[in-house]
UniProtKB/TrEMBL annotation:
PANTHER family recorded: PHAGE INFECTION PROTEIN, TRANSPORT PERMEASE YVFS-RELATED
Membrane-protein topology: Multi-pass membrane protein
Main localization, broad class: membrane
Source taxon at top rank: Bacteria
Regions that span the bilayer: 20-39, 533-553, 574-597, 603-626, 633-652, 694-710
Domain ABC-2 type transporter transmembrane: 19-164, 515-707
Species for this entry: Cohnella lupini
Protein name: Putative membrane protein
Record localization: Membrane
Molecular function terms from GO: ABC-type transporter activity
Entry annotated with the keyword Transmembrane helix: yes
Entry keyword set: Membrane, Transmembrane, Transmembrane helix
One Gene Ontology CC term in the entry: membrane
Length: 726
């Protein structure tokens, strides 16, 4: 029997049974029924939003802005009445609540009583955001609630633009008044600048004359001060000279007598300085001996500290050894009951523990001695340093004593000469006292006259200086005033020109209300919802059509007796393939030419649908061929997983993690991608990539089916005549 003989006989059998032909035709239309009704049922739901009932409740009480009445709620309702996005129902609050509870409205929009007041607060000190209450009736229909909510957001944006535009008009209306005021202020500032300039010029002249006056008065005052100072010095000097001359005369006589006593004292001082030098030399020798002793003591304290540190280390070792001995005895006694009961061992253990405790206390005491030796060593070092400083001080004292002895010798010699010539000094001091008395009387008269003159010139100089300083500050202020008024006039004039040039037309107001607009690029936009959902529905329909066909025709058995192996495989494959081809051709023809589904390329749409249909058919055939009736249940489960994981409705990123993990392994993922390319995007290269992936599934599952029939041909299963189901 050749490869196609079984298929030919089966084909003749099928066409001889009218009921089978009708059944095959019905099965061929299964994908068309699935995809056609589903796509047509969801063809353009957004095009009928004007039939979706939405309740609108206006409770706005209105408000005043800049003395003008405003009712934003009424304007919003008027805007909605001209808006055909939904079937707006303008009702009261109670009717809206009844309609929402009775599922007569898919959503409600309520404008609160204070809506206009909140909107008008934008121009006040405490602006408050205006609110519109939106309620979606998602219990009634979730999708309708979402659609109405999105549309309400657009209305909210439009209302916000209208409020912003009205506020902008109010602001711009004030610019005319502002421009007039700025112009008048600029003219006044210009006049003020002219007056300030003249004031600065006059003050400048006054300042020049006052500077000259102040300079002359200052020089006069300075000269009088110098003269007064000289007169005061002369007066003071004359008085002091008189007093000193008198004292000198009296003291000279006393000094003559005291000079003799001083000479006698200087002689004794010279003798004492000699004795002081000798004593200081002895003290220095003693300090040197003290330094040497302290040096030896410091070295001894260092050796003591080192010895105590060594003793601490040895005692530490002894303590550790005694503890080990005590622990060893305790362990031996614990291991031997006889030793533990022996009194001598108990005394030995107690003695070893006492030794251990004693060594610990000895170690603690030695540590304290070690700390004390460190303190002693530090004190010895400080004493040694002090002794060295004492020795150096004695050296300095000894040098000073030698210098003192030399000075005393010189003093004695000088006093001897002083006493010899002191008689002449006594006579001269008497004459000096008489002349100083006359000079002091004349200096007193001169000082009194100069005091009166200096007081007058000082007042003149101070007044001229204060006047000059005040005029200088006044001149600086006048210059700054002139500069400031000039800049003020320029800025006010410039501001007036700029504010007068500001445009305030409707285009500006609209731009301020909506400064940014979005320009939609519809190059990749699918305008009809049916076109967007078609890849998902077509893939599901082709898979469902393949599953339904396995309930009509056995996947294992043929109507030809004795058919087995490869001929049976060829017959079944061709039968399933022809049904799949018929399903694909009918579905594409009805979708494109009857329902009006728009695709980028009709021939490629036919070709890709055939590839997808054959792939799904051979996948279902392989599973049902191997598993028979349970295989249909497996196919149904596979279809459910594909519908959930193929990202046909929601984006892949929005699916659960398990669905995202399964997505790359399921064939419907790639069928949907390819249908999107040929229906919407026109990316045929990407479509052929998906077709190649579908072909891989097709070949793999054909091989699985072939392996089943090959196994059957070798006698692992008996051939059975296929029961015909009508």
């Amino acid at each position: 029997m050749n490869l196609f003989q079984v298929f030919k006989q089966s084909f003749r059998f099928f066409i001889s049974k009218p009921m089978l032909i009708v059944t095959f035709v019905g099965v061929a239309f299964i994908p068309t029924l699935y995809s056609g009704f589903l796509i047509r049922g969801t063809w353009d739901p957004y095009g009928k939003l004007n039939e979706l009932p939405v309740a609108v409740v206006n409770l706005d009480e209105g408000a005043d802005i800049d003395g003008k009445p405003m009712n934003v709620g009424r304007d919003f309702v008027a805007e909605l009445k001209s808006n055909t996005s939904f079937n707006w129902s303008f009702v009261g609050e109670e009717e809206a609540n009844r309609g929402m509870k009775g599922n007569r409205y898919y959503a409600s929009i309520t404008i609160p009583p204070q809506f206009s007041k909140d909107a008008a607060s934008l121009a006040g000190d405490q602006p408050k955001q205006a609110e519109i209450v939106f309620e979606s009736n998602s219990y009634y229909n979730f999708v309708a609630g979402q659609i109405s909510e999105n549309a309400t957001r657009e209305l909210k944006d439009k209302l916000s633009q209208n409020l912003t535009e009205a506020y902008s008009r109010s602001i711009y209306s004030q610019f005319g008044t502002l421009t007039s005021g700025l112009s008048e202020a600029g003219a006044g500032a210009a006049k003020l600048n002219a007056g300030a300039s003249r004031l600065a010029e006059g003050i400048g002249k006054v300042q020049t004359n006052l500077s000259e006056l102040s300079s002359g008065a200052s020089k006069l005052n300075s000269g009088m001060r110098q003269l007064q100072v000289g007169a005061d010095k002369l007066k003071s000097g004359a008085s002091e000279l008189e007093s000193g001359a008198t004292d000198l005369s009296a003291g000279a006589r006393k000094l003559k007598a005291a000079g003799l006593k001083l000479l006698e004292g200087a002689t004794k001082a010279e003798q004492g300085s000699v004795a002081l030098s000798s004593g200081l030399q002895d003290a220095k020798d003693a300090a040197d001996r003290l330094t040497a002793g302290l040096q030896n003591s410091a070295e001894g304290s260092e050796r003591l500290r080192d010895g105590l540190q060594a003793a601490s280390s040895a005692i530490g070792d002894l303590t550790a050894g005694s503890e080990q001995v005590a622990d060893g005895l305790r362990q031996v006694m614990d291991d031997n009951a006889d030793l533990r009961a022996d009194p001598r061992m108990q005394k030995l253990l107690a003695a070893s523990q006492a030794v251990a405790n004693g060594t610990k206390e000895l170690l603690t005491g030695n540590k304290q001695l070690e700390a004390g030796s460190a303190t002693l060593d530090e004190a010895q070092k400080q004493l040694l340093e002090g002794s060295r400083m004492l020795s150096e001080g004695h050296m300095q004292l000894l040098g000073g004593a030698k210098e003192l002895r030399t000075g005393q010798k010189q003093l004695k010699d000088g006093l001897e000469q002083y006493n010899t010539n002191f008689g002449k000094l006594v006579d001269g001091s008497d004459k000096l006292a008489q002349g100083a008395s006359r000079l002091s009387a004349g200096a007193n008269d001169l000082g009194a006259g100069l005091d009166k003159t200096a007081a007058g010139t000082s007042k003149v100089a101070n007044g001229a200086k204060q006047l000059d300083d005040g005029v200088t500050e006044l001149n600086d202020g006048a210059i700054e005033l002139a500069d400031g008024t000039r800049e003020l006039a320029d800025k006010l004039t410039e501001a007036s020109e700029k504010t007068s040039s500001i445009k305030a037309d409707d285009e500006i107001f609209r731009m301020l209300a909506a400064p940014v607009t979005i320009k939609a690029n519809n190059e990749r936009k699918v305008t009809i919802y049916g076109n967007g959902i078609a890849p998902y529905f077509i893939s599901m329909a082709l898979f469902a059509g393949a599953l339904v066909f396995t309930t009509i025709i056995s996947a294992r058995n043929t109507v030809v007796d004795g058919a087995k192996g490869i001929p049976a495989f060829v017959s079944k494959t061709l039968t399933f393939g022809l049904i799949s081809l018929a399903q694909s051709l009918i579905a594409v023809t009805i979708l494109v030419f009857v329902l009006g589904l728009e695709v980028q390329s009709v021939p490629l749409f036919y070709a890709y649908t055939i590839i997808v249909g054959l792939t799904f058919m051979f996948i279902v055939q392989a599973i049902v061929t191997w598993l028979d009736l349970p295989g249909r249940f497996v196919v149904l489960i596979l279809m459910i997983f594909q519908l959930a994981s193929s990202a046909g409705t929601f984006p892949l990123e929005l699916l659960p993690d398990w669905a995202q993990a399964m997505n790359p392994w399921l064939p419907m993922t790639y069928s949907i991608r390819g249908f999107r390319d040929v229906i919407s995007s026109g990316d045929y290269d990407h479509m052929w990539v998906q077709a190649g992936r579908m072909a891989i599934y097709l070949v793999l599952f054909l091989i699985l089916t072939f392996l089943y029939f090959l196994k059957r041909e070798k006698g692992h299963a008996e051939e059975q005549t296929m029961p015909v189901k009508v």
